[in-house]
Amino acid sequence: MFLGFANFYRRFIAAYSKIAEPLSSILKGSKEGKKSGPLEWTDKQQAAFDELKSKFGEAPMLRHFDPSKKIRIETDASIFAVGAILSQLFEDGIWHPIAF
């Protein structure tokens, strides 16, 4: 469950797959993400979990829409899904997300 939630934010966390690898590795070889035996939670998994929790607090936060600022829309689509991010350029020179 945690990785399903965390995967949504992967594009906002630098090196996400490298950080999450110890968590993903304990599910490898499982059917539908469920292992038949007990999971082995080691210091590596705990460190990855703690780092991801910390990174969530650093990820870009949504800003309020300002009609006077430049707007950028990024889109992506597949056979199964469509997504978009609306961003605006703020005084700090960074494109900040407004909506997903």
Contiguous low-pLDDT stretches (5 residues minimum) are none
Distance between the termini: 21 Å
Strands ordered across the widest β-sheet: 1-2-3
Which structural class do you get from the secondary structure elements? alpha+beta
Task: Return the string of H and E elements.
Answer: HHHEEE
Number of helices: 3
Helical proportion?
25-40%
| Number of DSSP strand runs | 3
Largest sheet: 3 strands, antiparallel
Mean pLDDT equals: 83
Strand content: 15-25%
Q: Taking Cα atoms only, what radius of gyration do you get, to the nearest Å?
A: 17 Å
Q: How many domain units?
A: 2
Form type: elongated
Give the helix/strand layout.
Elements: H1 2-8, H2 16-25, H3 43-58, E1 71-77, E2 82-89, E3 95-99
Antiparallel strand pairs: 1-2, 2-3
Can you offer a commentary on this structure?
The chain is built from 3 helices and 3 strands; from the N terminus they run αααβββ. It has helices spanning 2-8, 16-25, 43-58, and strands spanning 71-77, 82-89, 95-99. α2 (16-25) packs antiparallel against α3. The longest helix has 16 residues, at 43-58. The model has no long low-confidence stretch (mean pLDDT 83).
Question: What distinguishing features does this structure have?
Answer:
alpha+beta, 3-stranded antiparallel β-sheet, 3 helices, 33% helix
